Each structure stands twice: as C-alpha cells, then as structure tokens.
Amino acid sequence: MLRNKFWQALFAIGPIAMLFLGMIAYFIFLFFILSNMDELDHSSGNYSAAWIMGNLSVFLIFIFLAVLISIGSLVFYIVHAANNPNLRENNMLLVWILLFIFANGIGQLIYWIIEIVNKRDKEIIPG
C-alpha cells in the first residue's frame, strides 16, 4: 500500500482538497442561512430549527470525514518516511516527521512532490 500511486496521491492531495471543499461547504451553508432568513423568521419554530440542524449535520459529517482523511494522511506519510531508505542516511527523517506534524496537509503534499514524484521520475530515466 505504501508504494501504490493512488494512495500516495490521495493522502497527499486529500487534506488540502478537503480544506477547500470544507470552506466552500461552509460558505454555501452560510449563504443559504442568510438568504432564507426571512422565511425562517416567519415559519414555525420547529421547521426552521429542523432545517438548520439538518444542514448543520451534513456539514459536521463532512468535517468528521476531513479529520479522518487528515489523520490517515499523517499516519500514512509518517510510516512512508520511516520506511524510506533515502532518509535514514541523515536527519531528514526527523525534519519530515516534524513537518508532517506541524504543517499537516501542506507537509504531506511537499513530501509527495519532492520525495516520491521527483524520485520516481529519476528512477525511470537511466542516468
């Protein structure tokens, strides 16, 4: 699984994509709340609360999914870096793990571009 291109790309791009999709979902939710404010004021209290809570629950499920993908990405790339023989020669393993922890999402994307995609291209081209 660590060498599968699909999982590497998913866990590298997934947290960033979920962040942007989450921001879009939040603004859509906010837009619908603000655009339907007059209807919510004049309708019965049960309908407006149910409508808001229904939309909020969809948003919270999305946030939960984003957190799961982010944690999965963190674990996947820490294990991948620990098994990378190129990083065992120097202190870059520690640097990458700290980057994964403190810059979650961006760190995995940078690692994927530098250590996986660029190294994969160099292995194909005989030097």
Question: Mind explaining what this structure looks like?
Answer:
The protein has 127 residues and is mainly alpha-helical. Helices cover 83% and strands 0% of the residues. It has 5 helices and no strands. It is elongated. The model has no long low-confidence stretch (mean pLDDT 81).
Strands, helices and their partners?
Elements: H1 5-35, H2 37-42, H3 45-82, H4 92-102, H5 106-124
The helical percent reads over 70%
The average pLDDT is: 81
Counting DSSP E segments of at least 2 residues, the number of strands comes to 0
Sketch the topology as an H/E string, one letter per element: HHHHH
- What amount of the residues lies in strands? under 5%
Low-pLDDT residue intervals, each spanning 5 or more residues: none
**Helical segment count:** 5
* Backbone shape: elongated
How far the N terminus sits from the C terminus, by CA atoms, comes to 28 Å
Cα radius of gyration in angstroms? 21 Å
